[in-house]
Recover the amino acids of this structure.
């Protein structure tokens, strides 16, 4: 017997309002993109939305089409009432620190780079040890919290644009199609052409190939 799926609600600003009620004035949402790929940086975004903010369709980036993400990205970037910062941890930092610590580094850079700063952060996912600002971690926060949803779109689309640029520089690898993830086509390109300076050499599929830099 089939069951009717439970209704889903779009992200809202309840978490931001709760933080405001605790005395925090500048509350940002933080999310990241690019933890899993074999190439390219990990990117984080921090966003402070104005009170009562509304943007039709704003949701977790994973629930949206690429075209819809681009529309929302442009709207967020062009809106001066939305305070935002996008930051990254490089491939070299990922290989040196490991991907988890590099992700946390990108998140910290995004929060600290906000114009005027933030005094409280809502972070998607599990707790971030040693985060320099008061924070609350929210599992699946990008689907629950509006400022985290906005951050998820900024991080995802900015990284996609970055990988599109890498595709123009290294057309043999198809970065624009797979954004650095370990697809069959990407693995085949690595076997044929070797790795580039943009590949994460500590990630097992790349390490196991034991190929020189391309």
């Amino acid at each position: 017997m089939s069951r009717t799926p439970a209704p889903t609600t779009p992200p809202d600003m309840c978490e931001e309002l709760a933080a405001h009620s605790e005395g925090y004035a500048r509350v940002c949402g933080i999310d990241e993109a690019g933890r899993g790929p074999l190439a390219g940086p990990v990117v984080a975004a921090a966003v402070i939305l104005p009170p009562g903010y509304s943007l039709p369709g704003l949701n977790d980036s994973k629930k949206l089409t690429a075209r819809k993400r681009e529309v929302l990205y442009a709207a967020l970037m062009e809106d001066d009432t939305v305070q935002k910062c996008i930051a990254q941890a490089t491939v070299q930092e990922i290989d040196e620190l490991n991907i988890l610590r590099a992700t946390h580094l990108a998140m910290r850079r995004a929060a600290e780079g906000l114009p005027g700063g933030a005094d409280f952060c809502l972070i998607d996912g599990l707790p971030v040890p040693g985060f320099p600002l008061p924070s609350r971690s929210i599992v699946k926060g990008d689907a629950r919290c509006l400022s985290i949803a906005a951050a998820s779109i900024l991080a995802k689309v900015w990284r996609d644009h970055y990988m599109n640029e890498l595709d123009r520089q290294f057309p043999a690898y198809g970065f624009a199609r797979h954004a650095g993830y370990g697809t069959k086509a990407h693995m085949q390109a690595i076997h044929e052409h070797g790795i580039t300076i943009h590949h994460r050499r500590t990630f097992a599929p790349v390490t196991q190939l034991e190929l020189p830099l391309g």
